[in-house]
Give the backbone structure.
Amino acid sequence: MKSLSLTAVVLGVLGLVAAFVLWMSPADEFIFAPDRAEPLAERVTVEGARPAGADSVYFVDVFVRRMSLLERILPFTRPDGSTVVPEEQLLPAGTSEEERDQRNADDMQRSEQIATAVALKALGYDVVATPTGILVTGVAGDGPAAGRIEPGDVIVEVDGAPVRTPDALRARITRHAPGDEVDLVVRRGGERVELTVPTIPNPADPDRPIVGIQVDQAADIELPIDVDIDLGPVGGPSAGLPFALEIARQLGRDVTHGCRVAATGALALDGSVIPVGALKQKTYGVRRSDVDVFVVPARENAAIARQYADDVRIIAVDSYQQALRRLATSALKC
């Protein structure tokens, strides 16, 4: 009897050691896991602020890390609401994690500037903002653009026509049928480069062609007042919409209408809301923070958010101006 007990203890210890080793050993895949939604009031400083309403706008981030071998072997050890992402989707061939982090930091800086320009312009401020093209922020490793388009390229022409905003780029590409080729001109390192890129069907909408890139607005911007945004190590462009809403709130516009409002979505300089990733994790995050309303990009992003929203109200928008209208006219009761 004592021998059996000792054996059980030894096996238990060995099992714990093995689990620890597997937990500490990274796998090739990454995990996207939910974080909590956080208020922006203490992170956004606006010159001449006169906030309207007591409730700040909330932004929501996502934890991104390598999956452990234990999580690969035992899926139940993964965080609730998480998604496994293949390495090649997050780190295209030849890209290091440090390069990815730097690109995310650059994306955040652009997002802050564009969000400020959009918010101030909507409030009637004199903003000098000149779109200069569409910045490529990511290239899918398994998409048709891989090996042709590079992160950092600025797309300035599609099929011989100038384009300056992400919406204009999408409009030109969707004139094609999936499988057609698209002629692009990009600025790369000060040079003009001509490219021909095949299209493939969008997995979410097979009738719509895509080339497999993520984009943001490239622009020259001059702002009339000082706005400082500091999210610490958070990177990426997806907080543009909540930034712009919070700036408007701090300058006296009633944005939240007595509700706890969270938002996600990148912004183009014309106010268009650009779809973003990790909507499942972000929706989990707003649920955990007792948020009443979650403003998200329309169509696929909104469909995912509604799937996981539970009691959170989802407002789908195509533009910043529409977000302001929907929040003001939805007769929110919180």
